[in-house]
Each structure stands twice: as C-alpha cells, then as structure tokens.
TrEMBL record:
It is an enzyme of class 3 (hydrolase). This is nucleoside diphosphate phosphatase. InterPro entries: GDA1_CD39_NTPase. Pathway: Protein modification; protein glycosylation. Monomer; active form. Homodimer; disulfide-linked. Homodimers are enzymatically inactive. ATP binds at G166, A167, S168, T169, Q170. The active site is at E148. Its EC number is 3.6.1.6. GO terms for cellular component: endoplasmic reticulum; extracellular region. It is found in: Endoplasmic reticulum; Secreted. Its cofactor is Ca(2+); Mg(2+). GO terms for molecular function: ATP binding; nucleoside diphosphate phosphatase activity.
Amino acid sequence: MRRRERPDFFPPNVCPINAKANTFYGIMFDAGSTGTRIHIYTFVQKSPENLPEVEGEIFESVKPGLSAYADQPEKGAETVKTLLDMAIDAVPPHLWKKTPVVLKATAGLRLLSEEKAQALLSEVKEVFEESPFLVPEDSVGIMDGSHEGQLSGQNQQTVGILDLGGASTQITFLPRFEETLKETPGDFLTSFEMFNSTYQLYTHSYLGFGLKAARLATLGALNMEVVDGQMFRSSCLPKQLEAEWHFGGVKYRYGGNKEGETGFKPCYLEVLKVVRGKLHQPDEIRGSSFYAFSYYYDRAADTNLIDYEHGGVLEVRDFERKAKEVCDNMERYNSASPFLCMDLTYITALLKEGFGFRDNTVLQICNM
C-alpha cells in the first residue's frame, strides 16, 4: 500500500501525562452499542487566570456494549466496574473524592425499551456510588443525537469528526461558509461559546445508520417483525454461508445468494438503497479533512489499510479499493468475518453517496 504523509493539521497521536501539583482528573465513560470505553483525563491548570488544559489520557474498552446486557443489567454494570478499577489505580488516592465520573450512553441504549435502558443505567449509577469518586447528580444518562459529536472535537483544530458505531453514525464539523449554515436543517446546528465568541457547530447523529444496523437494512431486516426461522440473503455474503446473528436482543438468520450474483458490484447496489438520499450532504465537506473513529478504524485495521496500534491516514477511495478486493475474493476473507465485504462496501457508500465525500477526501483514522 502506498504510504501517505500525515497532513500538518493532524496532531500526533501522543498524549503524555505530566503530573504536577495543580493536576486534577476526570473520568468519562462512552457507552456505545458495540462496546464501553473509559477515558481517564489528566488536566493541568498552569495559572489561576487560564483554563485547565488536557495534559494526558488513559483509554481502555470492553466488548460487548451495555445494550447486550438488556436482560442482565447487573452483568452490564460489572463491565463498567472492571474499567472503573483502572481509574482507581490511575488517579492518586488524595484526589479520588474530587474526581468526577460520568457515563453517557449513545444509540445502543436508545434502541432499548425505556424500562430496560433505565435498569442498566440504575445499576451503573450504583457502581459509581460505591466507588471513591465524585458522582454528580446527572452522572449517568443517554445522550440525544445532537450531543454525540460534541465530545469528539479536537482542541485547536477545525477538521471534522466522523464516528461509526453499531447503531448510529455521527458527523461533526465547524462550518466555514455562511451558505452552509443557510442550507443546513436547524436541528443539525448547535451553538457553543469559546474564547468569548459564539460558534455554530454542525453535528448530527443518524440512528439506524451504524454498521450493524446497516447490515440489517441491507438484508432487509431492519425495523421488521422477524418470523422464527426466516432467512435473509445478500450478494454481499459468501454464497454458501448460512448462519445466525444476534443484535438488539433479536436473533437473525442470514446467508449468501446461492444462485445469484455475489461480489462488489451487486453488493454496492444493495447498500446504495440504504444510504442514497437519506443523509444531508453539506457541500463544503467535499474538500475538507476529517478524523474517523470506531468502525472506520476497526475495518481499516482488520484489512491492513492502517496500523492497528497507531491508525493512519487514508483517502475515501482506499476503502472502496479494499471493498472491491474483499468482495471479489470472499472465499479468501471469509475466515476474518462473513460481513467484511458488506461492512467495507457500506463504509464506501456511506462516505461517497451518503455524506457526499470525494474519492480523495483525507481521513485520519484513529482509535478512540
């Protein structure tokens, strides 16, 4: 693969921790549909007149996500406790009672019934209250779609953010042109203040357009009553494949087109039905550069497009090239994941036909 140079506007993936007397900490849990992630942030206030700065971060994750424990909320909370034990080791004991801990859940819990979601959150809140950390009143909750992208902003950068979860996908960027603001739906914009100025941030979460939800949509199984034993087939899957898959508390049977076509071209036509005309396409992003997280990272790393440890810089066309390679040689890649062709094709279609990115749009693929 041709190696790309990192553009100047992408900072290095290094977060040194420099403990000082004026250091304090914050613990943030991101409870997504496919996994729960803990971010232990170190802040340093260099002078009383200045705002604290992020000095370092410790990150870890567990799978599956909390929504997988919809019927076993206590077990779901145990996964959070396992991660929280890391924070106990990372934060100095004399700062425990001053260190806030917060968990925000995203699309995975929004797909559950309110009763099951609240049962999970109650168990998590109990884990927090039994810990030595500071537990704010609103420490546990479900974020609405407009807030998901706001937590991903780069401190001094104006590049955009793309996040692809299991149930939803998010896009966030700071518009540069007045025309973008005029043409954007009102609920896609949110105002925030920084350095005594007010900014309009473009941020939206598309529920049902995460990677796993897109699999169901491609199979024709999303938002439908599944009859026991019903089989869903796709040209994006190996011909002889027949298997079962659990998502959102439902069991699905799926397989390849035994008699029909398989490969990238028929698969792309299937996936196009899922994304074409369904997402807003702001013109200015076509020439912009974005950070991309979660399943963008996972699938790029799974297929050696990027380094697993450090991520890498790709163009949109790299996902399409790899999708063609995998889909047209499914037998060779079947052991990795039966959904690999479908996933890469969906990512390609989402970026090009969904959001409207150009083939040469630069993406910094990061783990988060």
